[in-house]
Amino acid sequence: MRMRTTVAAVTGALALSALVAPAALAADGPKAPAGVAASNKAAHSAAGKTAFSTADVTGTPYALNATFSNVKVNKGKNIVVGTTNVVKVPVSFTLTHGVEVNIHADDFVSAVELYRGASFDDEEWWIDSDPAKCTDTSDTVATCTASVAVDPFTLLNEDAGAWKAAAFAVAWNGQLPDDPDLDLSKVGVAVKDKVAAYNLQRLSKLTVNAAPEPVKKGKTVTVTGKLSRANWETTKYAGYANQSVKLQFRKKGSSTYTTLKTIKTSSTGTLKTTTKATVDGYYRFSFAGTSTTPAVSAAGDYVDVK
């Protein structure tokens, strides 16, 4: 089973030990693009929780004259992740700022953090976007876009469920994050927390097989299948136990499925039930989904009734 170092909720992203090396963060923690890791630390420092380990770091960031609105994560949809492929999640927002704030400066960073936990300053696990690309719509307003790479290899099954998002911007104003004499009072920070809520879900799969085929009218059709979902710790798919699943039927020539009955999966995710054959058509199982697992329907299995 995959394991990772537990990060105390009170420290969250502040537990990162690297100062801001452009390469990455701690080997057993989430990965963030160059520039965002340091800015994330500065954003948390605004709440008085500095993550900078340099002995001579002084001050607390000032409130940057910038605000966020229209924040979208994955276009408002839940994020579904399988066992192998990295999922690129689009994020977007409107950034409104004072005329004195140069959002196109080389050392200005805006980004979005996806996290599991109570708040931006009390997260349990998190993933940062790459630095946002912003296009001016006026002297003080810009539309910004970025993406977040969600790698299933960095996730545990317990990460499935409710997540939130926070948007943050940092103006370094010439200060260097790895400078031993870093003065945070010269660094501007703006944070807007809980700008989006969504579920991070384990990709689901559902199979069906109806037999015998063909079958005589009025005889029994046995329908079997299995509901499974991604296990991020084993990188395989495992049966989803004790879940309600609908058996549905679509008459040949129709485009609409009708629910015949609802049954539950076994301890290994398998399904088995029977029904009477009446007319030619397609049988399928359909799962409504949960907070941790998306809805899924099997492709219909055709049965010819003689």
TrEMBL record:
Residues 1-26 form the signal peptide. It comes from the Bacteria. Keywords: Signal. This is Calcium-binding protein. It comes from Streptomyces cylindrosporus.
